[in-house]
Design goal:
The protein has 1319 residues and is mainly α. The protein is 59% helix and 1% strand. It has a two-stranded antiparallel ribbon with strand order 1-2. One of its GO terms (biological process) is sister chromatid cohesion.
Length: 1319
């Protein structure tokens, strides 16, 4: 309290204290929470809010409804307890606008207060709290008892509130001044008001203006709500608690209705909430919202009291009907009802005042924290006083901020809606609101940028669906999120999907009497139906060209990963997802057979018997559903095994054993059922790796184990699909990894190898000259299948002995046969493409396996020498074919063969690279005895191959984009985003479209990208290993930013190589060559209009700039390339771009700017001198106001700023030049003047009153730059002839020059004639 009014009455209450009520926050009942409990959860709001709005801490006039000046930058410290404080801030609400004159007649004596009795209250323990220390640390005066109580963690705030109410009853003015001063301290303001000023409602604005001016003088005033100081950690919670206790206690004793406390508080906080100062605005808003929340609790209690009194009066009326006379109790009830109505009216006035004076303006504040405060408070009001606030006039505010640009605001809006739909009794009034904002909620659930928002919205939509307010299409749209890539989204929608699954099961079993097994099978059928239905639309979009019979097959392979994600999410909510035993039994049934009724409970539960049962229509599967259910079974088995690994050891072994026993019985039947379907058998082959095969030995079922080997081998030898072969090889590898079954494994793998060799020899058909022999279509397919099988198996197993086995020369070995088949690659038969490709892979893998067994050259025996010579011969013969097929000029090789040959060529040169002959510890590698070097000519051909592959893939990328994709993105960018600055959409849109509008990649497109990146990564590895020279990396760098993020990752490896070459190997010329060549080729794509915009070239320049230096801590330059090479890079590029005489070439100066990071002042001077020389030689003068030349001026300005670091005068000259350039008008850049005919004489220009002097005499060639300044579409003239000192120009251009001469607004400076009329 201030000392202006003298010492107020004693603060100690003289009456008996009632039992102190424990404090409850705005979101809880007052009887459930004490002040010392844990703070409210500070989930996603604080995590995302502090990071997202860090840049918004500075206030400006846009943040306030009034058009005031910006507040000085007083960026507060980051707040830790922000979410708690914001949540509690909702508990305050105020009434109507304060009257103009103070009402002092009513606040002398509380109406219902009794005479206090002189009693003493126990002193509070202050602990270690020191008010003077607080004032020193925070620079906030400690002269306010209420503020000190908030800061004191040991203070009893209930007692503080009661003491304040006692003081309010005895000295109203001083008490209210103390309350307002507490709010000022909470704003970080040390000014105070006295008892007279606080009640002078007309002078509130003037007083706040004075406080604002004083606060602006401080450099960084402390702002408790957002301060990082530890002492303010619980400030927001304590402030919220004190305000809530004040309002609730005032309502209990009647001071809320008999005093001016609320009116005075409203007057000040409403005015402060519109302040220019963010500290005032934020704190006042928080206080007002906390008051409103507390008033909501009071109003709800009053409403309940009014309801009780009404029922009591109605009862008394019924009793009076018999007595015919009004009794005393009825009169008392009438008086009580009148008093309750009076309190309701006062509370309604208070509530309306804060909503209209604070919330309506601050919910759209510039500061996202304030907006989030308002929305969170509205959510609390919905909870505490739904009868009043669950109305369309209040709900619309929450609906509007669903499109807010700040994540915390959107999150609070969604949480507020969760509270809304949790109150079923008010759902009738939410119909219109739901219909209006339901599309936005669905959009947020599918595409919001923050996971927290998406999961919260899914919870709201689930509540909406419980009230039956979602259409079937909208429910389907939600359920499709079970395939989402984010695990939190899938888990959030799992409960909703579980509800739909239960409904469908009940629907299919309607009118049927079935047991548990029937319900289990109906559940499996329902799950398959739902997965097919939700994924059907995506498959139609991707595979629209396929017919109906192929569509199911495409889905069964494409849905594999998606089904596993869905099963993981639905594991706890859908019983069929976790019931792998029931799924296995379901799949063993013959769903193609007709069925009648059966007693499922009486049927045999064995799997064998279940296959004999006819299938009921309630759970009969279609072909597509059966494929999907097989995927569900595999995902369920994997999930069950993964969960078993986290359980105890005994439980783990038990579950794996049960799983294996069931599969031992069921797996053979699955092989028999699906052996003709390549896609399904590929999925069945995923099951054996999940089994504990040692259980075969423990159960003495070796015959069954041998049969399992036979089943897998049969599928491997009878199918040629890559997925089947890969799955079969994975099964074989799993079986071979069991040492206790090695005898059976050895026998079976030898049988498989013998069968493979026999298949290969049979496919060749005993032909002598395989290289030129003729093969029919069936033989080509058979040979391609055999080569694919050998390639799949040799990729996981050393088969060198088998490859070279010739049975003593009785027959050709596998190496010779496959090598002969590979020789047919030069013929270019497209039918043999797969055969040649797989053959090359087999030969390359054979060389790698053989190299793995290469002996040490120093300890080589004659036998080892023979082994090395054999390896050398095989390698050299293969390399000869690889070079011919990949980069040769004579053979007519197919594309797939070229790609395979190139990859194997690079891989072998990496393996035998002459620069990689030692290990890091200095040991000589065995491959050092067989070094390889790639000829320069072959390297250039390889670079050309990569260039061709890039161009081919770029065409595929461009063809895959929708024609109207960019236009749609421009209009859809701002859908519903009210807080996006308009200036962000100004100007021309860029070529690339936003991420949200990109179409999903199809399976074909993903396969193309996979093959392309396989080729690129192989070439990149060769560069990194030294097999290919670094200079050839420019071909990759030139396409940076054009082919997707996977391709752009290659840049980092190349940058590391360039940095190593330039700074550690003193090879700066190489760095200059690569950087220069890469930027030239990249910008040439822009000049040739192959790529729209220069943004990707600028991004490449930023990456290449890192090769000039090595940064250390805090981005300091630790080491950099020699300055002469950096200068050489700039001069080479400036000379090159000068030859590209067109308007687009000027944009290249934007590319040069990122390369100046490592340039010092002396180098900048050299670069600038060279640039001036280049421009002078081209006879080009840069106009100071043309927008076309803005990149050049920015480049020159950056050079000047670098030079100014060591030259003090340069800075002044630069600033002066910049100012003069800024003063020049550039109307010609905004709108082009209309051209007049050349014959028309332009009017004479009016003389300028004060023309600016020319800085230098313009040469006759300056007409070119003036032309560009006046016409942004005019390009740099390609060729200037120096006849008699004037440029060659067309008559139309000359006419335009004459027009410019007669339009002084276009050129503010008086100048000589710009052009000469043609003569």
């Amino acid at each position: 309290m201030t000392d202006v009014e003298g010492s107020p009455a004693p603060r100690r209450s003289q009456r008996d204290k009632k039992q102190v009520k424990p404090y409850a926050s705005g979101s809880q009942s007052p009887n459930k929470r004490k002040r010392n409990t844990e703070e409210d959860d500070q989930v996603d709001v604080q995590e995302m809010g502090d990071a997202e709005v860090e840049a918004d801490d500075e206030d400006d006039a846009d943040g306030v409804d009034d058009d005031d000046d910006d507040e000085p930058d007083t960026r507060p410290a980051k707040r830790k307890g922000k979410a708690t404080a914001l949540r509690k801030a909702k508990s305050k609400a105020k009434g109507p606008p304060p009257p103009k004159k103070p009402r002092t007649a009513k606040n002398t004596v509380p109406k219902l207060q009794k005479t206090p009795k002189p009693t003493k209250r126990k002193a509070r323990a202050n602990g270690d709290f020191d008010a003077d220390k607080l004032a020193t640390e925070t620079k906030i005066s400690a002269d306010n008892p209420l503020f000190n109580a908030i800061m004191n963690p040991s203070a009893a705030l209930q007692s503080t509130a009661e003491d304040f109410l006692d003081s309010l009853a005895q000295s109203p003015g001083a008490a209210q001044a103390e309350l307002i001063n507490c709010i000022l301290r909470a704003c970080g303001c040390n000014d105070s008001v006295d008892a007279d000023e606080v009640l002078d409602y007309d002078g509130v604005v003037d007083s706040l203006d004075n406080f604002t001016e004083g606060l602006k003088q401080e450099n960084s005033p402390i702002y408790p709500l957002t301060s990082k100081l530890p002492i303010f950690k619980r400030f927001r919670a304590s402030l919220s608690e004190l305000i809530s206790r004040l309002v609730l206690s005032a309502a209990d004793v009647g001071a809320l209705y008999t005093s001016d406390m609320v009116t005075t508080l409203q007057t000040w906080v409403v005015a402060m909430s519109s302040s220019q100062i963010r500290a005032f605005r934020h704190t006042a808003t928080a206080v007002a919202l906390e008051v409103e929340t507390a008033l909501c609790q009071v109003a709800a209690a009053v409403e309940k009291e009014a309801e009780i009194v009404g029922r009591q009066r109605e009862g008394e009326r019924k009793r009076r009907a018999a007595n015919k006379a009004q009794n005393v109790r009825e009169k008392d009830l009438d008086g009580k009802a009148a008093e309750v109505r009076k309190r309701r009216a006062a509370l309604a006035e208070y509530l309306k005042e804060i909503v209209d004076g604070v919330f309506v303006h601050r919910y759209r504040d510039l500061d996202p924290h304030i907006r989030a405060e308002c929305v969170r408070a509205m959510g609390h009001w919905f909870t505490h006083y739904p009868a009043h606030f669950l109305d369309a006039s209040y709900l619309r505010y929450v609906g509007w901020v669903l499109s807010d640009s700040a994540t915390p605001v959107r999150l609070e809006a969604v949480r507020a809606l969760s509270a809304v739909y949790a109150q079923a009794e008010y759902i009738g009034g939410l119909m219109n609101f739901t219909a209006r904002f339901k599309p936005r909620l669905l959009e947020m659930a599918a595409r919001d940028t923050e996971l927290a928002v998406r999961t919260a919205v899914l919870g709201v939509l689930g509540a909406v669906d419980q009230h039956g307010l979602l259409e079937d299409e909208e429910r389907e749209q939600m359920c499709q999120l079970v395939f989402d890539g984010e695990v939190r989204v899938r888990k959030a929608v799992a409960g909703f999907v579980g509800g739909l699954w239960n409904e469908l099961v009940e629907e299919r079993l309607a009118g049927r009497k079935v047991g548990e097994k029937g319900k289990e099978r109906a559940g499996a059928k329902a799950l398959a139906m739902l997965l097919v239905r939700w994924d059907h639309e995506r498959v139609e979009e991707e595979d629209g060209s396929q017919d109906g019979s192929q569509r199911g097959v495409a889905m069964s392979t494409d849905i594999k990963g998606r089904t596993a994600l869905a099963v993981e999410a639905l594991w706890d909510d859908v019983d069929s997802a976790s019931g792998w035993e029931g799924l296995l039994e379901m799949l063993l049934l013959d769903h193609s057979a007709g069925g009648g009724e059966e007693d499922l409970d009486a049927a045999d539960d064995s799997i064998a018997a279940s296959a004999k049962n006819t299938v009921d229509e309630a759970w009969r599967l279609t072909e597509t559903e059966e494929s999907v259910l097989l995927e569900v079974l595999i995902a369920s088995l994997r999930r069950a095994k993964a969960l078993a690994g986290t359980a105890k050891k005994v439980e783990d072994e038990t579950l794996i054993s049960d799983l294996t026993r069931a599969l031992i019985k069921g797996l053979p039947r699955l092989f028999i059922k699906y052996q003709t379907d390549a896609n399904r058998i590929a999925n069945v082959l995923l099951i054996p790796p999940l089994m504990n095969v040692e259980l075969y030995l423990e159960m003495r079922m070796m015959t069954a184990y041998a049969n399992l080997w036979d089943d897998i081998t049969k599928q491997f030898l009878s199918h040629s699909a890559q997925t089947v072969l890969a799955s079969a090889v994975a099964c074989i590898t799993h079986l071979l990894s069991c040492p206790s079954l090695s005898n059976t494994n050895s026998t079976k793998i030898l049988e498989l190898e013998d069968e493979l060799a026999a298949q290969l020899r049979d496919a060749v058909g005993g032909r002598e000259e395989i290289e030129v022999a003729g093969f029919n279509e069936d033989e080509v397919l058979a040979l391609g299948a055999v080569c694919a099988r050998v390639c799949a198996l040799i990729g996981t197993r050393d088969m060198c002995g088998w490859m070279e086995e010739s049975e003593g020369g009785k027959q050709s070995c596998v190496w010779d046969i496959i090598a002969a088949l590979v020789e047919r690659g030069r013929l270019g038969y497209r039918e043999e493409e797969r055969m040649i490709e797989q053959g090359l892979q087999v030969l390359g893998l054979h060389i790698m396996w053989k190299t793995r067994s290469l002996p040490d050259a120093k300890e080589a025996t004659p036998e080892d020498e023979k082994y090395m010579e054999s390896l050398r011969e095989e390698r050299d013969s293969l390399l000869e074919r690889l070079v011919e097929y990949a980069v040769g000029t004579q053979s007519n090789t197919a594309e797939a063969v070229k790609r395979a040959a190139f990859q194997n060529l690079m891989t072998l040169h990496i393996l035998f690279c002459a620069e990689q002959t030692t290990t890091p510890d200095g040991r000589v590698l065995p491959t050092a005895a067989l070094p390889l070097e790639l000829d320069d000519e072959v390297q250039y051909r390889c670079a050309g191959f990569i260039q061709a592959a890039i161009e081919q893939y770029a065409e595929l990328v461009e063809e895959g984009q929708a024609p109207g994709q960019e236009e749609a993105s421009e209009s859809g960018e701002s859908s519903g985003e009210e807080n996006v600055p308009a200036k962000g959409k100004k100007g021309k849109t860029k070529a690339k479209s936003p991420v949200l509008k990109e179409q999903p990649l199809t399976r074909t497109r993903l396969e193309q990208e996979y093959m392309f990146m396989g080729t690129i990564s192989t070439f990149l590895r060769a560069i990194r290993a030294g097999a290919v020279h670094v200079r050839h990396s420019a071909v990759l760098l030139a396409h940076y930013g054009r082919l997707g993020p996977a391709f752009d990752l290659c840049t980092k490896v190349i940058i590391d190589s360039l940095r190593e070459e330039g700074m550690y190997r003193e090879n700066g010329d190489l760095v200059v060559d690569v950087v220069t060549q890469a930027l030239k080729e990249s910008f040439t794509l822009v000049l040739d209009s192959i790529v729209r915009g220069e943004d990707h070239v600028v991004a490449l320049a930023k990456q290449l700039g890192q090769s000039f230096m090595i940064r250390g801590a805090q981005l300091s330059i630790v080491k950099k390339l020699d300055s002469q090479y950096i200068v050489q890079t700039h001069t080479n590029l400036l000379t090159w771009i000068n030859k590209k005489a067109r308007k687009t070439a000027i944009l290249f100066f934007r590319v040069l700017q990122p390369l100046l990071a490592a340039v010092d002042s002396r180098d900048a001077l050299k670069i600038k001198a060279h640039m001036d020389q280049v421009l002078a030689q081209a006879k080009i003068e840069v106009p100071p106001s043309s927008k076309i030349w803005e990149p050049q001026r920015a480049y020159e300005k950056k050079l000047s700023s670098i030079m100014a670091k060591d030259k003090g005068g340069a800075k002044g000259r630069k600033a002066k030049g910049a100012k003069s350039a800024a003063m020049v008008t550039s109307d010609e850049s905004e709108s082009e003047p209309e051209l007049r005919p050349a014959e028309e004489e332009p009017p004479a220009p009016k003389p300028r009153p004060k023309p600016r002097p020319l800085r230098r005499q313009r040469s006759p060639t300056s007409s070119l730059s003036e032309l560009e300044a006046s016409d942004p579409e005019a390009g740099v003239q390609e060729h200037i002839e120096e006849g008699n000192g004037k440029p060659e120009a067309e008559p139309e251009v000359q006419a335009e020059h004459k027009q410019e001469q007669g339009t002084p607004m276009n050129h503010p400076r008086p100048q000589a004639t710009y052009g000469r009329s043609p003569t």
